[in-house]
Write a structure and sequence with these properties.
about 290 residues; mainly beta; Porin; twelve-stranded antiparallel barrel; globular
Length: about 290
């Protein structure tokens, strides 16, 4: 019998191929400043926009302690209810993770390319790229994960996040084998516009996922808070930007017989909201 392990089967120690496919429907609400920042006037009205999101991963452990994972992520936003300037139309990226794992730890490198477009002032390609390192520690109650890297972007007016170091830290806690609560927070620095105004992004996310017994899919609900801001002048103490609140519900198809098992299998890694960090900075915050 071949020693290879195909999708859905396991050897005595671990699953060699794993995947995740997610589809979500969301509302993205922007404020006009607040929480310590002044509105950038990139948008002139608060608005809530319907959004559809897709997320997919495929992971393969090609050696006893080595693996690779590919990601695809995309979001499409509906038309705003107000006509007040530049708004994001869509964004998405592809990424690759290469990692080394032991029974309880994973360390690796990641990189990817993305693209976004707007409903406003740019008729040229708007893109971004990123590289970084990541780690994951498995525990009796779940897992702890961290990522750090560098994010850069291009758009016609250099409004997006560029030359930006970023970091992310989170936990995935299992109430039981098929019910998890995930919390993570992220930060990015960098610059905005050609003059290099100091950029700052805060990101906080909370998600609960449950797979009812005998169901082939899991259900999840997620909340995301993102604040993008910048200093207009070196001697200006005020920060200018916007806050974004995203609420989503959706379905996930996963390999593995339980959510806890899926968290330990190939295909379980994900990324910060890099597309949002770039696109909303280039369009809604300008």
């Amino acid at each position: 019998m071949s020693s290879a392990v195909v999708a859905g089967e396991q050897d005595s120690d671990q699953q060699a191929i794993g995947y995740r496919i997610g589809l979500a429907f969301a509302g993205v609400h922007n404020t006009l400043g607040g929480l310590g920042i002044e509105s950038s006037t990139g948008v002139r009205d608060a608005d809530t926009r319907p959004t559809v999101m897709f997320d997919g991963t495929l992971g393969y452990d090609f050696a006893p302690n080595w693996g690779i994972q590919g990601d695809l992520h995309a979001a499409a936003l509906g038309r705003p209810d107000v006509r007040d300037g530049d708004r994001t139309n869509a964004y998405g990226h592809g990424a690759v993770h290469l990692y080394h794992r032991t029974d309880n730890f994973l360390v690796g490198a990641l990189g990817g390319l993305g693209i976004h477009n707007d409903r406003g002032d740019s008729n040229t390609e708007m893109n971004y790229w990123f590289v970084g390192a990541e780690g994951k520690m498995l525990t009796g109650w779940g897992s702890v994960f961290a990522q750090a890297g560098y994010l850069d972007s291009y758009d016609k007016y250099a409004e997006g996040t560029h030359e930006a170091p970023f970091a992310r830290l989170g936990i995935n806690y299992f109430l039981d084998d098929d019910w998890s609560v995930k919390l993570d927070a992220g930060y990015a620095g960098g610059k905005k516009w050609d003059v290099g105004l100091p950029n700052r992004i805060f990101d906080f996310n909370a998600e609960s996922e449950i797979r009812p017994e005998t169901w082939p899919v899991s259900l999840f609900a997620r909340y995301e808070f993102t604040q993008l801001s910048y200093h207009a002048f070196d001697n200006d103490q005020d920060r200018y930007g916007e806050n974004f609140h995203t609420v989503m519900v959706g379905l996930k198809f996963r390999s593995g017989t339980t959510l806890r098992e899926a968290d330990r299998a190939p295909g379980s890694l994900d990324l910060p909201s890099l597309g949002k960090w770039v696109a909303f900075n280039a369009n809604e915050v300008e």
